[in-house]
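Reader question, answered in our methods column.
A reader sent in the components of a multi-part assembly and asked whether the whole thing could be modeled at once rather than chain by chain. We filled in our standard form and ran it. Here is what they sent:
COMPLEX SIZE: two components
ENTRIES:
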Amino acid sequence: MTNIIDIRSLTKTYWRGGEAIHVLSGIHLTIRDGGYVALMGPSGSGKTTLLNMIGGLDKPSKGSVEVCGVEIGQLKGSALAKWRSHNIGFVFQFYNLMDVLTAQRNVELPLLLTKLSRKERRERALTALEIVGLADRAKHKPAELSGGQLQRVAIARALVADQRILVCDEPTGDLDRTAANQILDLLEILNSRHGKTIVMVTHDPEAAKHAHECLHLDKGRLTREAA
Amino acid sequence: MTSFGFLLANLGRKPVRTWLTFFCIIVCFLLFGLLRSVGTAFTAPPNLSGVERLVVSPKYSIIDPLPISHMRQVRSVPGVEAAAHADWFGGNYLDLGLAFPTIPVKPMEYFDLYSEYQIPQAQLEAFENTRTGAVASRGTAERFDWRIGDVIPIVADIYPKMDGSLLWEFELVGIYDRPDQTSGNFEDFYIHYDYFEEAKQHSKGMIGWIAVRVENPDAAAEVASAIDARFENSRDPTRTMTENEYNAQFAQQIGNIGLMVTMILAAVFFSILLLVSNTMFQAFRERLRDLGVLKALGFSDGQVARMIIYEALILTLGGGVVGLLLCYGLLIMVSPILQIYGTFTLDALSLALGLATALVLGVVVSAVPAIRARSAPVVEVLRARA
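And here is the structure of the entire assembly that came back:
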C-alpha cells in the first residue's frame, strides 16, 4: 500500500518576542493510504502543530510535508485552500459547527466550493448524515443536538466532499465515555469500510487503542512508535 | 443551501442587531432621498414652458423693492395679458408672534389675475370699496375664528404708519377659497394697497413684486426675457420667474438650502458609517472562529473576505433600496402639498446616487473586517477558540 503522508526532517519554529520556540524537531513520519494513526503526548508536545502541518493549515520551517502526493509547503493561498477542500476533512474537539445552520446545511458547507447543483449538494449531505447515523436530525440546529451528535455532524462534514484524509483533533475530548466510544466506532468504520485515512490527536489511551498505530510526541520529537 | 442563503444565515446570527442596523440604513436612505428631493426642488433650473403666470421680482434679492412705475411698463410688454402687484407686509397678529403672509394688493386686478380664488362678488366689491378692508383665506379665518366685520389687529415689523404707530387695524370684509390649494394651510391675508400706500411711513411708490398672466403659455419664456430686457439697464432690474421658483426663493431666505441639505446629509452619513462600521466589527469579532473553520474547510482567504463584503452589501444595498422606495412613495403622497415650492420627486440621478452611496457604504464599512479576515492565520484563529 502506498504512503499517503510522507514527512521528512520536519522542523517547526515559532518566534515569540525574539525567542525561538522549537515546536517540532526533525520529524520523520510516513502513513500509508487507509491507515489509522493516533498521535499522543503531553500538552505542548507539538501534536496539534503536526496535525496542522498534515492538514495544510500551517507550513514547516524546514523539511518537507508531502500529503496525497503534493508537497504542501510549495502551495500558497487559494491553491492550498483548494487542495485542503479536496483532500482533508477536519474534525475538531469542539465540533466548530455554524450555530445558525441546520445539521444538513453544516454538512453542505464544503460542497459550496464544488460545482455540484443545489440538489446534488443536499443529497450528498443527507448521505453523509446517513453514514454517521443522523439522517433524522438533518433539520436540527447545533443547539438542539447532544455533544455526540454534534461530533457526528462534524464528521459528516469532514467526509461529505469525499476527502481522503480525516484529521481529528481530540475528537472525543469533549464527550462522555459512551458518546466517545460511539464516535471512535464511527471513525473505525470510516477507516475500515470507506477507506479513509485517519490521523487523530488524543490524550485518551482508550481512543488510541482504536488506531492501527500510536505515535508519541514529546517536546517536538517523535519519541516512540507502537503498533 | 446556496452561497446567498449562507450569507443570509450569517446575517441572521443576531437578528435583532441585524434588523436594527437594517432599519437604521433604511431611515438613512429615506432621509437621503427626501433631502435630495428638497435640494433638487430648490436648485432646479426654472422651466418656463407652458407656464400661464409669471412673477417679476427684483433681480438681486426678493427683499429689494420695485418702483410701481414698473407696472405700466410690464403691462406694455407684448404677450402680457394682465398684471397685478403685491408686497410683503410682514407683521404679527395680536402681538403674539402669530404670523401669516399679509399682502397689500389692488383687489380687483389681483383677484382678476388669480381667478381661481373664489370669493363672492359682493365681498370682493366690499374689499375694493373699503380702504381698511381685508380678505382672509378660509383656513386662516377658521383658524382664528374670524367673522365678516371683525377688526383684525396686525402689529407691523417692517412698515410703521405715518404717525409712527406699528398697530394696523383691518376690517375683515371677505373670505376666499382656493380650490386648487391642496395643502389646506394656505394663509395669505390680503389688505388694500391704497390704504397701505397712503398710511405707511416709508417706501412710498414701491412694491414687492408683480404677478403677470401671459397671453400664450407656450411663449412664457420669451415674455419673461422681454420683461427682464425692458429693465436691464434701469436702476431696478428684474428677474422674471415661475411662481414655484419665486416661492422657493422665499423659502431660501432662511439660508442656502442646498448647502444645508448637503451638510445634513454628510452628518447623517458619517453617523451611519460609524454605526454600521461598529456593527460590522462586532459581528466580525464574534465570527472569527467560524471564519477560521471556513478556511480549514477549504474556503480561500479571498472567499472569506468577499463573504464579509457581500454581507455588508446585502445590508446597505437592501436598506438603500427599501429606503429609496419608501422615499419615492412618500414623495408621491406629499408632493401635491409642497407643489407651491416646486416639484418634489426622486429623480433618476438621485436614485443612482443613492444606490452608488449604498454600494460605497457597504464596501467602506466592511473593508477593514474583510482585510482582517483575509489575513487572519487559520491556526491562530482556531487556537484562540480552544
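What stands out: The longest helix of chain B spans residues 301-334. The mean pLDDT of chain B is 85.
Send us your own complexes using the same form.
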